[in-house]
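Late entry, coenzyme A complex.
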Amino acid sequence: MEFTTEYSDKTDAIIAMFFDTFSASEGAEAAALIKALVTDMLTSLGSDDLHVFLTIEKGEVVASIIFTPMIYADDTRTVVILAPVAVATAHQGKGLGQRLITHALQTLRDRGVDVALTYGDINFYSKVGFAPVTEADAQPPLSLQYPHGWLGQTLNAGPFVPLKGSSRCVGPLDDPNHW
Ligand SMILES: CC(C)(COP(=O)(O)OP(=O)(O)OC[C@H]1O[C@@H](n2cnc3c(N)ncnc32)[C@H](O)[C@@H]1OP(=O)(O)O)[C@@H](O)C(=O)NCCC(=O)NCCS
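Prediction complete; structure with ligand written out below:
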């Protein structure tokens, strides 16, 4: 099993893994939405706007996470959002998701990223350092359907200092269906 950020020859496999995983866990509608999101991210965003991390086992993509930048108008810090995340159904529950996210956060820290945000289930994301943040701590780019799922962590030492100003996400995430 290996981690890689080299994804350019694996886009079809990544899209298929997200689609199959979400089909099994969340149903057809969510799977179609995630497939469109991942396809849009991988095909429309340049390398400055896309941090893709993969776990490969026997040549197969078994886990994938994608980070994209968030711009806070009045804040100088570098901020990313983790979305989406998938571990192939047959490989879930073995610590793979946590290992890949931990590895990715360390890599992003080394690249100078200050803050990571995500939007999801605190029961899972708290295992990799995320904690709930309020909309005053970090204004979301669109209105949140599940404000309790708005999560963040600093990647440098110290507490989470509120991010200043309004925020902007990349185009593929700029859709109320994802929030
Ligand atoms: C969520 C997901 C990425 C977790 O990856 P994983 O490799 O299965 O998880 P790990 O083995 O690293 O961690 C397992 C722990 O996370 C928790 N967990 C796993 N999936 C969870 C989920 N969907 N919701 C809440 N908690 C979850 C488990 O309770 C488990 O905790 P425990 O060890 O105390 O029992 C993976 O199950 C997945 O891809 N699910 C379908 C797609 C999805 O839901 N993506 C995330 C959208 S926010």
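The first strand starts at residue 2 and ends at 4. Will revisit in the morning.
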